[in-house]
Amino acid sequence: MISIIDDDVCARQATAGVIRSLGYAFATYASAEDFLGSDRVNDTSCLITDMHLPGLSGLELYQSLRADGFDVPTIFVTGHPDETTRTQALAAGAVAFLSKPFGKKAMHDCLKAALIRHETDILHH
Asked: Among the four 14, 84, 90, 107, which has the fewest Cβ within 10 Å?
C-alpha cells in the first residue's frame, strides 16, 4: 500500500493518478493527522508526503513514525524546494526528495527504490 499525503487536493489527485498508472494500490490523505488516524499506517510500504502540511509537517510525521519504530521508506515532495529542506529530509533517511511538478518516470524511479528498501528491511527483521 502506497500512502499519499498532500493538503493540496489537485497535487494529491495528480500523485494518485501517477501511482494508479503504475499499477500500485494506494490511499490518500489530506493531512498527517488523517493518515495517523487511519487503519493503513501498518500496511504502508511506501509513504509519499508533502513537506509542508497544516499541523504536523511531512518531516515531523516521518520523524514521529521513526521514533515509534515504524521505518517506512518515504518520498518527500514539495512545491517550495530549497536546499536546507532537501538536506534535512535526506539526512533524516528519506528515499527521495522531489520538487513539484514531478514526472511519472521520476516518481517511478523513486518508488522502485523505496519498495526495494522496504523489501530489504522486511528480510532483515
From this structure: 84
